[in-house]
Amino acid sequence: MIRDARVLQPEFVPGDIVHRTQEVRALSNALEPVTRGQTGETALLHGPSGSGKTCIARFATDRLRETVLDLTTQYVNCWEDYSRFKTLYRVLEGVDRTLNIHRQSTPKDELLERLREYDGPPYVVILDEVDQLEDTRVLYELYRTRGLTMVLIANREDALFGPLDDRVASRLRAATRIGFDCYTVDELVGILEPRVERGLREGAVTSAQLAMIADAAAGDARVGIEVLRVAARRASNQQLDSVSDDAIRNAVPEANAEIRQRNVEMLTADQRIVYEIIADREEVTPSELYAAYRERADDPKTNRTVRNYLQKMERYNLIRADGENRGRSYSSVL
DNA sequence: CCTCCACTGGAAGATCGGGAAG
DNA sequence: CTTCCCGATCTTCCAGTGGAGG
To answer: Integer distance in angstroms from CA A211 to C1' B16?
Structure first.
């Protein structure tokens, strides 16, 4: 039943963008100087998750590479590489300058040195989830790199500006800003349709079912694609040649559980204890939580460290923190 | 109104761990 | 082998916040 699983992967970039033509054009304009060997304008793509920011950034840079012979591009996910070191490392990796850097290879900041020395062809770097950077100095350092053009992606524009250095903030205000809105149900169907055509056997999913998926995804293309993928895989495992309505309904919580499971696996043993305490109960106050943690953990970490864990888990969308200060309580997401 | 205090999260410094140099 | 280095992680300290209860 599955013909081409690749098009059901979340990171698949379609060869042709059905919606978002306006946004593609705006981004291409910002990058246009690159075609003349110059540095492009910094672009800032912002909007809710699953609204096509990453996809459009990749699409535009891929297309740019088709027209510009001598061009390097790199994608960096700042959520995964949130420290300054890791981000710089990835950027250098894109131009093969990481040889022999394993951590402490001589001077204090070898990475920055190498970046300064960069003298190659135009280089376009996509920084996804850029609001997750813990040290925004790296943005300034990238701004100062010759021939480097940045495409920044953030969920919320204002969350990015908050902790910024003045020098970076002023440059960022001059950036080309491109806003993205949630997809409508029709648009989502339009995104899923070509994937079904290429990825699945004919008639495996009806258009009414696509509308069901689109509706459940609430404007988030990533969720929609994940639901489609889970439902198709399930049907395929059962040797069916089409997807039932029930399979789709079941796939919605399963797709969410899968995302959550992946995040839980990234936690350390101590973090997982904290997560499980929260998951076990409806709602828990900070002091109850820490007391329970101390009881279960051998060699427990300090209260402050547990608070860092909680922040991290909140960012991973594993838990929710309600209220402020004294009124704070933690609960697990679904 | 004021005081108390549970809670948050920033800053700075200590510690851990792994790779390289001596 | 030991020593040094450095990023990541953890602790210590603390200022700020706002609800509870005089």
So the answer is: 52
